[in-house]
Amino acid sequence: MSDQQLLIIDDDATFARVLARALGSRGFEVITASNADEARALTRRHQPRYCVLDLKLGEENGLRLIPELQALVPEIRVLLLTGYASIATAVEAIKRGAHDYLSKPVDADAVVRALLDGDTNAGDDELIDAPEAPLALRRLEWEHIQRVLTECDGNISETARRLGMHRRTLQRKLSKHPVRERPDSED
Amino acid sequence: MSDQQLLIIDDDATFARVLARALGSRGFEVITASNADEARALTRRHQPRYCVLDLKLGEENGLRLIPELQALVPEIRVLLLTGYASIATAVEAIKRGAHDYLSKPVDADAVVRALLDGDTNAGDDELIDAPEAPLALRRLEWEHIQRVLTECDGNISETARRLGMHRRTLQRKLSKHPVRERPDSED
DNA sequence: CATCCCTGTGGCTATCTGCCGCAGGTGATT
DNA sequence: AATCACCTGCGGCAGATAGCCACAGGGATG
Q1: How far apart are CA A141 and CA A165, in angstroms?
Q2: Can you tell me whether residue B81 is helix, strand or coil?
Q3: CB-CB contact of A162 with A152 (8 Å)
Q4: How far is B107 from chain A (nearest CA, A)?
Q5: Quick check: A134 and B148 CB within 8 A?
Q6: I need a surface site. Which of A54, A90, B77, B119 has the fewest CB within 10 A?
């Protein structure tokens, strides 16, 4: 099934690149866009069957893009991804036609699972053959901490504040965790 | 609109009664059911246009009821209510045809608003802006747990296994109330 | 009936968390 | 220089939480 085109739309170049590589190695033919216009153009040209959309596209709102993409490619499957998840936006996303909605951090397997979920046309079960752990809680926590930490330029106090936890607790978590560089798959 | 029939399905009798009274005074003709069978029967008989459904119906899962109700009354509008709100279940609910999804506690006006909210979703884009703050750690954890739990069809042991945590710990977390520290835009 | 897997529960200890406080560092403002 | 207003690291302590063990009951299944 390497002929499955997948469009990643995310203004976070790093995240998009990592995800693109991970999904590429899972059999998708990945193209990426960093803004709405680019996304529209690429969708028109490549008619991708799958799409991973970031909710927060810089100034624009990813939600508005969903109907547009579907107008261009009726059978497209849009998976919404966001680090700023909320129930309200999730509901809106699905109502607007998104296939699923996940909050970052996610691992590539979860993305694949969500994309192919319920897809009767996805005859290639090999693709989904990675039912491995849905991220242990520890790992999820760590990933998220790192995300926010980076977002805060390494400012521990600020990170703790945003994470709603005590600074001391964050410090201890950080000092305890042996900063592993390349864990395993994907991320 | 005082002739609008509304079916409340909730196994929490107290909550159902209070909500029924509140909605009754707002012009709905309210009937209540405390379980799935009763709900099916009442729906068949009264053909309600609106429905407030509890996600946790004792043993049963409210989600499964949505398609059934819609089969009985095509134009029915189902509003899902739950004290254990999570993005995963919200997504599932909408995908299964729910009109909206709110988390308890909620005031009657919000319920009415959600129920009557026209199909003019495309109109108010202001409401769908993404939250500013990243998910607090506890919230993130809760969302992820709910996601996997749903994926495991509510099987706690299996979920704990996949999450790499002790079953007892998961149980304790679940028995505790959902972490609602900063109910930003939802609820 | 035996077996397997699920669930709920209680108790124990080890660990973690939140919340103090303190000392030192940096950079801007007075 | 003194004074803020931040930040960081660290220690201690009481209370919350996690992991682990055990047991009882339910519900399938052979």
Answers
A1: 12
A2: strand
A3: yes
A4: 16
A5: yes
A6: B119
> What confidence tens digit (pLDDT) does each residue in A52-102 have?
998 877 667 788 889 999 999 999 999 998 876 667 778 888 988 999 988
Substitution target in B120, B135, B165, B169 with the highest count of A β-carbons within 10 Å is B135
**pLDDT tens across B107-141, in order?**
677 788 888 876 444 334 333 343 445 567 888 88
Cross-chain Cβ contact A101/B91 below 8 Å: yes
Which structure tokens are listed for A94? 């699905």
Residue type, A140: L
- Distance (Å) from CA B80 to C1' D14? 41
Per-residue pLDDT of B26-54, as tens digits, reads 889 999 998 888 889 999 999 999 999 98
Nearest to A10 by CA among A98, A82, A68, A87: A82
3-state helix, strand, coil in chain B (%, to 5): 45, 15, 35
Chain B CB contacts of A92 under 8 Å are 121, 127-128
User: Quick check: B128 and A103 CB within 8 A?
Assistant: no
Nearest CA in chain A to B80: A91
- Provide the terminal-to-terminal Cα distance of chain B, rounded to the nearest Å: 25
| Distance of alpha carbon A165 from alpha carbon A70, whole angstroms | 40
In chain A, which among 112-141 make CB contacts under 8 A with chain B? 133-141
B136's CB contacts (< 8 A; 6+ apart) are: A162, A163, A164, A165, B179, B181, B182
Beta bridge partners, B4, equal B28
Specify which residue's alpha carbon is closest to the C1' of nucleotide C9: B168
Q: Closest protein residue to C19 using CA and C1' atoms?
A: A166
Going through chain A in order, the beta strands assigned E by DSSP cover 4-9, 28-33, 50-54, 56-57, 60-61, 77-82, 100-103
Do residue B134 and residue A84 have CB atoms under 8 angstroms apart?
yes
Structure tokens at A181: 């560089």
Nearest chain B residue to A82 by CA distance is: B130
How far apart (Å, rounded) are the C-alpha atoms in residues B183 and A87?
10
